[in-house]
Each structure stands twice: as structure tokens, then as C-alpha cells.
Amino acid sequence: MNPMMAARLYSSVQGGSMPSSPTPQANPAAEGPGFADMLKSVVSQTAEQTRGAEMQMAQNVQGQGNLIDVVTSISAAEASLETVLAVRDQVISAYKEIMAMPI
């Protein structure tokens, strides 16, 4: 997976659009939440989706839920987790590249 694909996946989870080219910002703090805040938000959303999928499965086991709802919630949780893992892998890759750079 290339970095642009991971960035697009991350952007799609956030509901934003990927800018075509980076634009310099005079005051990045005024723009909005930082990268760490966005990561916290995505991780908490992933956890919520996972809990929702677990609740759907428990209801289905008890005979109260619908199988289609279970499959849908599991698919959403899986897609969210895959996005988080893709972003994590790209961050680790970027860190390794930076650490390998000569000073």
C-alpha cells in the first residue's frame, strides 16, 4: 500500500476530501485538531464500531437480532480497523525512513 492510498483511506474515514496539492498554512493551530487528536478520534470510533458489532452478535445469538445487521456492523468495524492499521503501518514506515536518513 502506498502512502497516498493510506492518506485517502484515512481521509475517507474522517469524511474529508484529500487536497490535490499541499498548501502552506500561516497558522496550522487555527486550522483545527492536530494529527494526534484525529488519531484518537479514529481509534475511539473504531472501538465503538467494534462494540456495536459485538452487541449485534450477542443479540443475534439470543435470537433478537437480524443477521444482515450483524454482517453490516462487522463489515463496518473491519473496514475501520483496516484503515487504522494502514495508517499505523504508514506512520511506522515514515518513522523508519526518517531514522535512516543521514544527518
Tell me what the structure shows.
The structure is a single chain. The protein is mostly helical and 103 residues long. It has a domain at 1-11 and 48-103. The chain is 75% helix and 0% strand. It has helices spanning 3-14, 28-31, 35-61, 67-100. The longest helix is centred in the C-terminal third of the chain and has 34 residues, at 67-100. The model has no long low-confidence stretch (mean pLDDT 78).
N→C terminal distance: 28 Å
Q: What is the makeup of the main sheet?
A: none
* Derived structural class: mainly alpha
Order of helices and strands: HHHH
- Taking pLDDT < 50 over at least 5 consecutive residues as the criterion, the unreliable ranges are none
- Please give the count of helices: 4
Could you write a compact summary of the structure shown?
By secondary structure, this protein is mainly α.
Secondary structure: elements and pairs:
Layout: H1 3-14, H2 28-31, H3 35-61, H4 67-100
Keywords, separated by commas or semicolons:
103 residues, mainly alpha, 75% helix, 0% strand
